[in-house]
Amino acid sequence: MDYRRFRKIFDDRGLDILRIITEIRIFYIRFTKKFNKYFHQKGHDLTVDQWRILRWLLVSDKETLSNITKILDDDLGAVCRRVSRMEDNGYIERIEDPADRRQRFIALTKKTKDSQDKFIRLSAKLVRHLFSNFSDEEMKQFIHLLDRLASNLESFEIE
User: Fold this and answer.
1) pLDDT at position 12 over 70
2) Best label site of 11, 26, 42, 144, fewest CB within 10 Å?
């Protein structure tokens, strides 16, 4: 899809808010592609969506698939596919709960735990570059505006 044409249509109608939403979406697509390419070039078959799962597991140690889905506010099917690919690539493992054999946890492998600093450095380098020409005040304002957008979205009542 030609997003420039898409933006032009909305601009001609004076619907600036739709342009903002389109720009956010375009940024997310570009960021995702850049992140995925960057990690791949560094020898890691890890996508930005898989990184979200891995990053959470770095904090929580182990988690159920349903909890990961809730925490990331994502689709269960999509999370299952990502987890399966991550397991195939050796980033995570499924662990049976000794207290309830029906329950399985998702956890980082030793290989991933040993590489966690490397993953964090790679991710941080990209994010630092994104904001390299933002002042501290601009960063605070940007975070504040994102928080307001999230709050407004949360308070929107679907009729």
Assistant:
1) no
2) 144
- What stretch of H or E contains 62? strand 62-64
pTM to 2 decimals? Answer: 0.78
DSSP symbols for 80-137:
HHHHHHHHHTTSEEEEEETTEEEEEEEEE-HHHHHHHHHHHHHHHHHHHHHTTT--HH
Q: What is the fold of 42-131?
A: Arc Repressor Mutant, subunit A (1.10.10)
Kindly calculate the radius of gyration of the chain based on its CA atoms and give it in whole angstroms. Answer: 19
- Reduced to 3 states (helix: H, G, I; strand: E, B; else coil), residue 142 is helix
Measure the CA–CA gap between 137 and 62, rounded to whole angstroms: 37
Length of the chain: 159
Using alpha carbons only, give the angle 58, 63, 65 rounded to the nearest 5 degrees. Answer: 120
